[in-house]
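COMPLEX REQUEST
Ligand: adenosine-5'-triphosphate
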Amino acid sequence: MSTVSIENLHVGYGNSAVLRGLSLEIGTGEILCVTGPSGCGKSTLLRAVAGLLPATSGRILVDGEPVTGTAAGRALVFQDDGLLPWRSVQRNVELPLSIRKVPKGERREVATSWIGQVGLAGYERHLPRELSGGMRQRVQLARTLAGTPRVVLADEPFGALDAQTRTSMQRLLVDVWRAQPMTVVFVTHDVDEALFLGDRVAVLGRDGRLAKVVSSSRPRTDSSVPAERAEILETL
Ligand SMILES: Nc1ncnc2c1ncn2[C@@H]1O[C@H](COP(=O)(O)OP(=O)(O)OP(=O)(O)O)[C@@H](O)[C@H]1O
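STATUS: Structure written out below.
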């Protein structure tokens, strides 16, 4: 788990600025959801925190250390599951451990445990093409968590799933986060998803600045969520 500090961050592509002076503090073990209109720079923010895009000015610190490039401790999760089609579920989940040269026995044990925790016990030998979209997202989640990231950067990972599968993936994410707390920055267009998952919801404006941060207190009450929902929607 890590603290992420974003300080007066400006990021752009060529001469066009996207994020203009964004400051945000993401606490250790917090789930921060980021929402905002299309094109406001949500993915750009994640890429910058991942170390894939340099800041034009300002800085990002993870546990006090400036981000200067990618790091194994910061994992990106996408809508596209990114699974290797020729590798079984087991071998896909083992991937971050193979890269770290974790011994075979330990690799197998850790991967099997995560496959069980995401509800896919019995599917270890299946290939990605033999699984549904929701199951493939579970494999992606297991693979990400097997790498014990300190920060998970999720870019609309459940965006392509049907409503029911999406709800079960949201619950699964909260369950695994409770079992193994981690700092999560989760981008979504879906305000209800943001309020369900997030401890706080950061709303980016079209101008590339932070428009609002809304706290979503846990445990949520039925009456608090509509109020928070209205507060976010009036900004969009
Ligand atoms: N590789 C790139 N080169 C140039 N411009 C880019 C690049 N990637 C994104 N942009 C531009 O930067 C702006 C922000 O894009 P970004 O993908 O971060 O927005 P977003 O909020 O994630 O959008 P959406 O909600 O539609 O996914 C957009 O105007 C986009 O066209």
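REMARKS: The chain has a mean pLDDT of 90. The two ends are 31 Å apart (CA to CA).
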